[in-house]
Amino acid sequence: MANCLVIVESPAKVKTIKKFLGSNYEVDASNGHVRDLPKSQLGFDPDNGFEPKYITIRGKGDILAKLRKEVKKADKIYLATDPDREGEAISWHLMKALKLDEAKDKKVYRISFNEITKNAVKNSIKSPREIDMDLVNAQQARRMLDRMVGYKISPLLWEKVKRGLSAGRVQSVALRMICDREDEINAFIPEEYWSLEADLKLEGTKKPLTAKFYGTREGKQAIPNKEALDQICKGLENQSYVVEEVKNGERVKKAPIPFTTSTLQQEASKVLNFSTQKTMRLAQQLYEGVDVKGHGTVGLITYLRTDSTRVAEEADTAARAYIGENFGQQYVAKEEGSKKAVGKIQDAHEAIRPTNIALTPVIVKDSLARDLFRLYQLIWKRFTASRMASAVYETTSVKVGAGQYLFTLTASKLKFDGFMSVYIEEDEKEENNRILGKLEKGMTLELAELKEAQHFTQPPAHYTEASLVKALEEQGIGRPSTYAPTITTILARRYVTKENKNLYVTELGEVVNRMMKQCFPSIVDKDFTANLEYLLDKVGDGTVDWKTVVSNFYPDLEEAVTNAKEELESVTIADEVTDEICEICGRNMVVKYGPHGKFLACPGFPDCKNTKPYLEKIGVPCPKCGKDVVIKKTKKGRRYFGCENNPECDFMSWQKPSTHKCPECGSYMVEKGNKLLCADEQCGYTMNLPKSEGDEKEN
Question: Is the Cα dihedral 487, 489, 494, 499 positive or negative?
């Protein structure tokens, strides 16, 4: 009979952890939080020291009843929730809900582990501790600040704009950042500049070398307009192109540091095209445990919410041994390969890494779903690379003189691949491997052609999910656990829309942001929000009292809300009108938003209550009947393409149909990547997607 009870957050961890512990241990799950502030009210009393009022979350009664039965059987209870302040708070709430602090005959411990492995779990049992109330209070303060902003400002947005909107302590700042970037783009005035290149012939080589205009011997010179370019070209007439300097050297490219939550989200977006939400969902599965053939249920990665790049000594040693054995000792890094993290809470964790470097992507591939595998492979390669030696390039830099002007040529050749044998970051540019070793000082080169080109400076890029996460982290706004839900919320509220990875503010988003800036400037101020995060970290450190933070914040917010109710005028956001005609009353139907996304509704509501599914057209006629092809979803959420005239027309395709016809058999073709494939599998004809369409897809 078990006399020890281990309580974790997620049921997915139960099986993994139970395997590591003996028959004396029972493992059960709380399914996340069991208590929270009530949804029907603010949840704390400003006139009574801001004391929070916690209630049992609806639906958690049965879970708590089961846990109470398990508690009665056990002599020792181990609270093993996640190793962050949210997890610390869940352990504290379990303590209160299960009345463990009143149980004199029970021994109650808090344990935490950064990875779900046998060693980590058993070591945590050997070194239990008490609940860290500083971390609990930091979570309580964060929760109450978020509740203040949400419950005080959101109703105002419902009253002045429309129901269903929300404000948030972090989401409102993120929305402002996107709006500010949009304003920068709209206000941007392009500036003209020119480039000049010289194609130079080297005796004994067929392909000319391309040298870039540098300036004069006095320094670098920009070419602002055509007049300046013409003056330079005039000065180059009848000039000889002479090699004046050849420098050979080496350039070292250091290995990347291991992933944090932020950098994992950014790289997964760029490399795998994953949203932040999807990255976190998959990482959670890898952390909690998956079945790996020959190994059973294994937690494949360390804890996924972290700001730290620190790596445990044991994992570092194992990685270096693996690299030395599989790549050679020259590939093992000599330096540490990490940077110091900031803050007590975050640095208590490690970077995101594989729990066992010997479980290579090749070994686990057959056990993981495609996207799980791709994310694990990314994490494994990044961590392995972080423990490897730097890459080394041979570099050549050449200066070519022509009268008073200078041109430059540079080239590099990979001398030692180091970490690049495993991992190359997505935004690394290809290196130019052209050898310039034949060039020597004093050589005269023959000019083949001068190539001039006009350019214009470009506005700042729209935020993507990846670049927004990076900006939030750099500004000190939010924490690893908040990046994904923040972006998910502003998309769900339709403040922002996503097209080809770019985030664009909507009319609704502009209205809400304008109201927030006007009435709640501190809430959407980046510095104010970052300072609040700093204070919350100080609460977690035990150096600032949590009630001081919330009591200082509340009065100013209350005053701002009172003023806003009087000052703000109501705003009407018109619904998007479509060409779809309501067959009941003849009006043009409008786009509405529900829990499951867009749908069409008659604007005559409540007199006419007609609604229809919203079908997104892709601009391609149905190959069977000529009506429009639309995007549809199966009951399980898988996307496919079908005819809008269904059920009269039964056309459907898993791949996106194209307007192109197969030149071999005349059937319609479908898009797959940058290829067009004949829909008739027996034909099998394939061609490249026409360049203009391919470019459009990339952009």
Answer: positive
What gap in Å lies between CA 502 and CA 459, rounded to an integer? Answer: 14
Question: How remote is the C-alpha of 424 from its chain's centroid?
Answer: 19
Summarize pLDDT for 492-528 with one digit per residue, the tens. Answer: 999 999 988 899 999 899 999 999 999 999 999 999 9
User: What is the C-alpha separation between 354 and 528, in angstroms, rounded?
Assistant: 37
CB 146 within 8 A of CB 99: no
- Cα radius of gyration rounded to whole Å, the chain: 31
> What is the CB neighbour count within 10 angstroms for residue 650?
11
What confidence tens digit (pLDDT) does each residue in 592-606 have? 876 666 789 999 888
Residues catalogued as catalytic: 303
- Distance (Å, rounded) from C-alpha 38 to C-alpha 44? 9
Instruction: Report how far apart, in Å, the C-alpha atoms of 339 and of each of 264, 373, 531, 649, 696 are.
Output: 16, 27, 23, 60, 40
Q: Is the peptide bond before 606 cis (omega within 30 degrees of 0)?
A: yes
Of 162, 93, 99, which is closest to residue 131 (Cα–Cα)?
93
Q: What is the pLDDT of residues 146-182, one digit of tens each?
A: 999 999 999 999 999 888 889 999 999 999 999 999 9
> 603 with 590: CB under 8 angstroms?
yes
Residue ranges with strand state E in 296-382: 296-298
Residue 517 in contact with residue 176, Cβ under 8 Å? yes
3-state secondary structure of 337: coil
